[in-house]
Amino acid sequence: MTDIDVLIIGGGPAGLAAAIEAYENGCRSLLLLEREGSLGGILKQCIHNGFGLHMFGEELTGPEYADRYIKKLINYGIPYQCDTMVIDITPQKCVTAVSRSSGLQQFRAKAIVLAMGCRERPRGALGIPGWRCAGIYTAGTAQKFVNMKGLMPGKRVVVLGSGDIGLIMARRMTFMGAKVEACVELMPYSSGLKRNIVQCLDDYDIPLLLSHTVIDIKGKEHLEGVTVAAVDPQTLKPIAGTEQDFACDTLLLSVGLIPENELSGMAGVELSGATSGAIVDETLETSVSGIFSCGNVLHVHDLVDFVSEEAQKAGRNAYQYTASQGACEKTELLEIVDGFGVSGTVPQLIHKETKEDLMLMFRPKAIYQKSRVCIDVGEKNVLSKSVRILAPGEMVSVKFKPEYLAHAAQGDKITVRVEVAK
């Protein structure tokens, strides 16, 4: 059993930022574990630009963004292990990992930062009828084939779902000479960023079919085509008579991301039904003392810059936890709840005596125009902020000031809600 002050699980943008921040705050007993063969996470295959505007003030590609952190990690001499799979975490913060080079390893940590990222929702979760033929990929898998292995999945493509990876892959496949027939979205709005809709679909005349879905897959050995139909906006059921066929050899799935919280569950961490990530307080500490969560394993972000900012906070607070031996005074916890139009607010808890400003992040449940984002402490409204438009594809951040808590009484909840203009 090896003793470590701060153990970080995941070598993507969240894990890298957390490790560097812990080191810069004085931690010298730390270790980062990564299951893949190299650091960087999903950024390694994101060769498009648009990263780093918030963190570095310039546009970088995914590999360039990751390289900034990897070089700093190496220059600091922060220890890390790649090709190392964590297979168990206990509530006592004992971690078991396996690797080809070191075999079975066990670590006892004073604090753990969970930074495992997220995975794509597969076809099996969708219930689409049809044969299990070749030619159906998640958008991230196709991205890895094209950008890292130089392999083209096919030449005629339909994209199901309008998540950011799917939108970006529609453009990428077009660049590579494929014909993208359509991007099909079940909801009446896109789940991706507006800029990606414009730059990846509109600029290349790729149709976006809202309130549509794939109802049939044709082809036994290899995909030959799909049938798409409009759906009722209320029930999301296909509408008879609206079917249209698309001949294609590739179907890319961009139907949502799922935080990788299997290890969190092993550790006894309480998970949120809204985000599928951990329930955390304003320090990003989970329900298990000394275990912190950040990045896409906590809640799915739009921008990697925000992942890095959040991970820095987790790394800093994890080290402070070890420095205080977990003996920091814990004051009364207030619950942050989702009100009208709000889904998945993070953090979900806040200590009444907190002294720092914090950001509350959530996703709108629908499109709201000329509305207000409001925060209530108990029955008292402490913030009302006008916004031109809110959309589910773009995360909303609201600054919460500690002085708002002066209005909190015993048992009060903090409600984040959308107020629609009449």
**In terms of per-residue confidence, which ranges show pLDDT below 50 for 5 or more consecutive residues?**
none
What number of structural domains do the residues give?
3
Biggest beta sheet attributes:
7 strands, mixed
Structural class: alpha/beta
CATH hierarchy: architecture of the largest domain = 3-Layer(bba) Sandwich
SS strand fraction: 25-35%
Mean pLDDT: 94
Name the CATH homologous superfamily of the largest domain.
Answer: FAD/NAD(P)-binding domain
Count of DSSP strands: 25
Distance between the termini: 62 Å
Principal-axis shape = globular
Counting H and I runs of at least 4 residues, what is the number of helices? 7
CATH topology of the largest domain: FAD/NAD(P)-binding domain
Rg estimate, integer Å: 22 Å
CATH classification class of the largest domain: Alpha Beta
The helix content is 10-25%
Give a written overview of the molecule:
By secondary structure, this protein is an alpha/beta fold. It has three domains: 2-119 and 257-328, FAD/NAD(P)-binding domain; 122-253, FAD/NAD(P)-binding domain; 336-420, Immunoglobulin-like. It is built from seven helices and 25 strands. The protein has helices at 13-24, 62-76, 139-149, 164-175, 194-201, 262-266, 304-323; strands at residues 2-9, 30-33, 80-81, 84-89, 94-99, 103-114, 118-120, 136-138, 156-160, 179-184, 208-209, 212-218, 225-230, 244-247, 250-253, 257-259, 291-293, 333-338, 342-346, 349-351, 358-364, 368-377, 380-390, 396-400, 413-420. Strands 1, 2, 3, 4, 5, 6 and 17 form a seven-stranded mixed β-sheet that branches. A five-stranded parallel β-sheet has the order 8-15-9-10-11. A five-stranded mixed β-sheet has the order 20-18-25-22-23, with no helix packed on it. Helix 1 packs across helix 7. It is globular, with a radius of gyration of 22 Å. The protein starts with a strand and ends with a strand. The model has no long low-confidence stretch (mean pLDDT 94).
